[in-house]
Amino acid sequence: MTSPNAMEVMLTSSRPTRLASNAPFARKFRRFSEEDASAPKTRIPGITDRRGRSGPDPHGSTVREPVEPASATVEISPAHSADRRIIPLGNMTVEIVEATGHERIECRFRAPRHLLVVCEQGVRSRGDTFVEGLPRSSLRDLKRKLTFVPAGHGFHEWQEPRTRSRLVYFYFDPSKMPVNSDAGFTEFAPRLYFEDAVLWETAQKLLMLADSPGVDNRRYMEALGIILTHELVRLNSRTPRARTPVRGGLAGWQKRVVSEYIEEHLAEQISLSALAKLVDLSPWYFCRAFKQTFGIPPHRYHTNRRIECAKVLLAKPAPSVTDIGLTVGFSETSSFSTAFRKVTGVSPTDYHRSLE
Hints:
By secondary structure, the protein is of the alpha+beta class.
């Protein structure tokens, strides 16, 4: 009998629902388009709050900026639970959101533009996040996690913050997104709580400039925004196409419990029997169901998640390759380098240099 760990199947992702299939949303999209068409063509860039009040531009002047339609940005309730700052930038809009307390917060979004959520910091005591087309997640530690919501998809999240949180919403106009058909691109797919070192570093550079008052960095920020759109296309181009679900996989709650346990114990050795026990299955049946659900065996999934974590750490200048290997659970530098090269095609050192 072929060992489950010897079989290799590509991971799959759900195909996003097309915008045209939602008639009420299509009408809302036309309404937004008409509003945009009737709006003044000359706009003074700057920063506004959600009520459209003028305020100091961190790049040097006081401005008045038309407010985005409320339903075209993430709706947060109660409204007083977060401080929000909007920065319009050419091909996109940036919104910086900071939670002001520990009360329950609820967020909703569905609009004719793409949304990238970057969680700079935040841990929740309880919560649940849903992106249309993907399983729900109750992951608690959201720091450095990214979420992508394609235009027309629903996004809903509630949480009780345990620590002060800071989120950044990047809104993209679909008509201004670069599309490379030669790279296998078809349409954007939703992603929930993923990690990507290049996306993260680009977003951090942009936000660092946004937090620098009195300095005219707008052109550089707009350039970084263009890079961000290209990185999203790059990420999506390598996303495997959706496939028909295989029967006999893990149930939704089992998939969530197992994936969250692996995330919380990345640097530890996790036995097959321990994972199987979490979802009340025998080790043999669990291994089979896990592979049908995730597309790869449990051990390889664990290794891949370690490598993704290592990629984020390699984007920082300080840690050594040896230290990073130890941090993500490899006892020897050679085994870490071998595993990293097998997953990414390059050595950890070469990957680090590519980000400089």
